[in-house]
Amino acid sequence: QRAADIIEYTETKGLNTVAYHKACLDNPGKVLLTPDQIAQVESMLAALRADELTRTLLWKGESQLAITWEDEQTGLPCKALIDRVEMPNFVDLKTTRRQSPREFAQDFADYRYHQQLAWYREALTELTGEVPQPFIATASVSDGWPQVREAYAAAYEIDPEALEIGRQQNEQALLGIAECSESGNWSNVWTGQLNMLSLPER
């Protein structure tokens, strides 16, 4: 986001208010951030620039590359918007509260980043004919924020097995969408029955 698109919002009553939503409507195309949010963004940006790996990954190439294509197997239209591309690599930038690889692996699984990166890889392969290498760059602030105003950056390469699992899951998702589109039935397997709920496995 360009600095010119950001407006400092100083109302102290919070963001979930009529005043905030009115300010958003009064400033179309702009992003309203509180002074504390702006401080966090600036701190994370400084951390990304200071780290040699994340700086190398993020400060070259094309930003916000939009790609559209047709899935060969299902004929469905597909699209992707990729944070940063410098072939043969591409980078997805994430903010997180997780500051170690072991902790961030949980986010990686929970938010299905492996599927997202496999999807982006498919998009770039369709566009360029090359199979690119994905990376993730993360920025996080200290758990003690705002008392401890520190931010951290990290770079990750992606396990090929995780990418293959993501590719397979994306393929199944597209087949499911195609089947629902053809049948007109978008209900899931849990609809219309009583389901047993237990504590999740750990």
How would you describe this protein?
- The protein contains six helices and seven strands.
- The protein is α/β, with parallel strands linked by helices.
- The strands form two sheets. Strands 3-4-5-6-7 form a five-stranded mixed beta sheet, with helices on both faces. A two-stranded parallel sheet has the order 1-2.
- Strand 1, helix 1 (18-26) and strand 2 (31-33) form a beta-alpha-beta unit.
- The longest helix has 24 residues, at 160-183.
- It is globular and about 50 Å long.
- The two termini are 38 Å apart.
Spatial arrangement of strands, main beta sheet: 3-4-5-6-7
Spatial shape = globular
Spatial gap, N to C terminus: 38 Å
Using only C-alpha atoms, the radius of gyration works out to 20 Å
Low-confidence stretches: none
Helix content: 40-55%
Largest sheet: 5 strands, mixed
Order of helices and strands: EHEHHEEEHHEEH
Number of helices: 6
Structural class: alpha/beta
**What number is the mean pLDDT?**
90
Report the count of strand segments: 7
The fraction of residues in strands falls at: 15-25%
